[in-house]
Amino acid sequence: RNYMNAVPIATSLPQVVAVYGTLSDLLSVASNKLGIKATSVYNGKGGLIDDIALIRDDDVLFVCEGEPFIDPQTDGRPHEELTGSHTDWLTLNVGGRYFTTTRSTLVNKEPDSMLAHMFKDKDAWGNKQDHRGAFLIDRSPEYFEPILNYLRHGQLIVNDGINLLGVLEEARFFGIDSLIEHLEIAIKNSQPAEDHSPISRKEFVRFLLATPTKSELRCQGLNFSGADLSRLDLRYINFKMANLSRCNLAHANLCCANLERADLSGSVLDCANLQGVKMLCSNAEGASLKGCNFEDPSGLKANLEGANLKGVDMEGSQMTGINLRVATLKNAKLKNCNLRGATLAGTDLENCDLSGCDLQEANLRGSNVKGAIFEEMLTPLHMSQSVR
User: Fold this and answer.
1) Which letter does DSSP use for residue 228 in this model?
2) Inter-axis angle of helices 177-190 and 141-153, to 10 degrees?
3) Dihedral class, residue 230 (left if φ above 0, else alpha if ψ from -120 to 50, else beta)
4) SS3 state of residue 273
5) What is the largest CA-CA distance in the chain?
6) What is the dihedral of CA 70, 72, 78, 83, to 10 degrees?
7) Cys-Cys link to 171, which of 176, 210, 219, 278 (CB 3.0-4.6 A)?
8) Do 359 and 337 contact (CB within 8 A), yes or no?
9) What pLDDT is stored for residue 19 in this prediction?
10) What is the DSSP letter of 67?
């Protein structure tokens, strides 16, 4: 005999009913047993039965009064919704590792992403499947897992040891725009804070001791602001564009050091050895260079061309042959300096104190000496020197 489990609505209890005669007979029996006016019969998959011959032993049937088929096990949701393409369970084979998820997970969170376009419509992209029916994706499973979890619950969670840059690259590949922003912030926050604190004397001395004497020391752009570097042997060191403002460099040996474009403003370099030093376009405004030695016996001349030396105190310094071309020495104190053979062409010497200076054979062509003091000069100026 055939039996029917008749459930007209989701709240009805299942019943066993004998099936015989015609479809009309079945509907009549079901109506009497269940107290409804049964008009339609469906099988367990929602298929409409129009002939009693289609019913088999132990089939579970559903009868109703004409409403669309509703499976009572689905909390009243329409059958079409449950079998729609957006809620199908599927398996992904990502680089040999399997992930089980739903189409809605891949589609709903980022509807414009590559993953959404791949799985929005069945076979829209002709996705390849392996022998187990899993969709093949040739990407890194390690980086794909955080992306899938993000699509599931909207949170960026990355296990220890996973490179965020790799996850970011995958997010860009799959077009998960909202995740890209999260990852860029996470990467930025994970970077160690830039240390702009000045290098101390202790740190620098340790560095000097650890470096062979024949090795070139490059300190370009480093921050030594306010450091005490007095009496240190700093010969031949490259300080190009370094911050040496307010440093104590008194009695330091800076022979042939490269201080091009370095900031020496407010620093103390009294009695420093500056033989052959390169200070092109450096900023030494307000610095103290009293009693410094720029004169190299071997003939190598110190080069301070274009330097900013406003208000510097260079009293008593030895500067034979020094190159101060187009440098700015406004308000500088150059009293009793040896400037024999110095290049001062185009130099701004306005309001400078040049009293007691030796300017024999110095080139002052085009220099600005407005307000400069020349009393008691060891070598008188001649008109041929073309000063202005």
Assistant:
1) B
2) 110
3) beta
4) strand
5) 139
6) -110
7) 176
8) no
9) 67
10) P
d(CA 269, CA 243): 15
- The pLDDT score that the predictor gives to residue 45 is 63
Give the per-residue pLDDT at 9: 33
Q: Quote the crossing angle between the two packed helices 164-174 and 177-190, to the nearest 10°.
A: 160
Query: Which tokens hold the place of 83?
Result: 């079998």
Of 113, 165, 166, the residue nearest 142 (C-alpha) = 166
What confidence category does residue 86 fall into, taking pLDDT thresholds of 50, 70 and 90? very low
| DSSP structure string for 72-117 | GGGTT--HHHHTSGGG-EEEEEETTEEEEEEHHHHHHSSTTSHHHH
> Residue 323 and residue 256: Cα distance in Å, rounded?
14
Gap between the Cα atoms of 308 and 120, Å rounded: 68
Report CA dihedral (118, 119, 125, 129) to the nearest 10 degrees: 110
Closest CA to 96 of 127, 140, 126: 140
pTM exceeds 0.70 for this model: no
Q: Which helix (H) or strand (E) holds 42?
A: strand 40-42
User: Residue 332: which of 369, 286, 294 has the closest Cα?
Assistant: 286
Cα 17 to Cα 330: distance, rounded to the nearest angstrom: 114
Predicted pLDDT at 148: 92
